[in-house]
Write a structure and sequence with these properties.
With about 375 residues, this protein is α+β, with helices and mostly antiparallel strands. It is built from 13 helices and twelve strands.
């Protein structure tokens, strides 16, 4: 009689527990680490993900892994494997994605708790309380995207304002000169004088071309007119840039030293890396010292989450106190003797900061300059 009463009480307690767990909105399941099997699950699995409890019980490890998002599979399996060291009262929290019965992706916030120990004293069963946070994630992602979009729009508006004023300033002089030359040529009958004045066209047109080409390059970077990301090898890019700047390099004959042994590549947009090397090498050659042979040192490395590139030279150097705040501004030129659009350094900074990177500059007048670019790799 006593055994029947205790059995009835036990069944009653089990029914009570099942009733409580099934009434909860969250998914509850008990996972057996040694068997790699779910041995209990409440009806929250049905309301949230569409699976029936019996389908979950029948599922082996492979079936469970198929439910997990491929990008979260390895991490979650590692987390569950390490649960053998879970202590009573300890809670481990994580988030991962899982597919529902129709293949839709859900984000789950999971709290794993010790449930039962095995004969060896290690945790053998874990209770997991899973909350579906998909809607919350979507709201947060939408907010972040809108916030980033607002920041990007503000930055683009500021950039376009700068471009409008700077371009107007830089284009005004050559256009005025062309107009003046045209009027003078039209009003003179001296053929020799006309030919002399026409020869001045090439210099003015070259200045216009530099400015317009620079604008197109910067706008291409800002609007992301580029191919997808890939593994970009620094040595390969350097070789291509040297081939493009062949004539200029042969004329100047700089001593160029490279060391990409610490970090040979980066996941990035290839055209961006090419533009960085071309602009930094070209910049070093433009601002070389007339008193000594140009030496350029290019290195790469890793620091925390960054991949860095450094470009050092022994050129004329920069007075950072005087020009530091304007160094990366578009159309800023610091020597009237050197041809250029004044967009090279601005272009490099746009490329690096676009993905969350930054640039450090060290320079001394007449001693040289080092640009260190901290680049954030793109996701493959």
């Amino acid at each position: 009689m006593e055994v029947k009463i205790r059995t009835a009480e036990l069944m009653e307690n089990k029914q009570f527990t099942q009733l409580i767990t099934d009434s909860m909105p969250d998914i509850l399941f008990v996972y057996d680490i040694n068997k790699w099997k779910i041995i209990f699950v409440n009806k929250g699995i049905t309301s949230s993900l569409g699976y029936l409890p019996n389908e979950v019980y029948a599922s082996d490890r492979k079936g469970f892994e198929k439910m997990l998002h491929p990008d979260d599979l390895k991490r979650r399996i590692n987390e569950m494997t390490r649960m053998v060291n879970l202590l009573p009262g300890e809670i481990r929290e994580s988030e991962f994605r899982i597919k529902d019965k129709d293949g839709r992706i859900h984000w789950l916030n999971v709290r794993d708790l010790f449930f039962k120990a095995g004969k060896n004293g290690k945790t053998s069963q874990v209770l997991s309380i899973c909350q579906d946070v998909t809607e919350k994630k979507e709201v947060i992602d939408a907010y972040r995207k809108e916030k980033n979009r607002s920041k990007e729009l503000k930055r683009m508006n500021e950039l376009m304002d700068t471009f409008v004023f700077a371009a107007a300033h830089d284009l005004k002089a050559p256009v005025s000169n062309l107009q003046m030359l045209t009027q003078v040529i039209e009003n003179t009958e001296d053929t020799e004088k006309q030919l002399m004045l026409q020869q001045k066209y090439s210099g003015i047109i070259e200045t216009l071309d530099l400015t317009i080409s620079g604008l197109v390059k910067v706008l291409a970077i800002e609007k992301d007119y580029a191919s997808g990301t890939k593994v970009v090898h620094f040595k390969k890019i350097y070789t291509k840039v040297v081939a493009e700047l062949h004539d200029e390099i042969n004329k100047i004959e700089p001593e160029i030293h490279t060391d990409f042994s610490e970090c040979k590549s980066i996941v990035y947009i290839e055209s961006y890396v090419f533009s960085i090397f071309r602009n930094m090498l070209s910049n070093a050659m433009k601002f070389r010292s007339e008193e000594k042979k140009l030496a350029i040192d290019i290195r790469s490395g890793r620091e925390k989450t960054f991949v860095w590139l450094s470009f050092s030279d022994n050129g004329t150097g920069i007075d950072l106190q005087q020009y530091g705040k304007d160094l990366f501004k578009p159309f800023k030129r610091f020597s009237s003797k050197i041809k250029g659009s004044g967009l090279g350094l601005h272009l490099v900074k746009s490329i690096v900061t676009k993905n969350g990177g930054e640039i450090n500059v060290e320079s001394k007048k007449s001693e040289g300059t080092t640009f260190k670019l901290f680049m954030v790799p793109y996701k493959e």
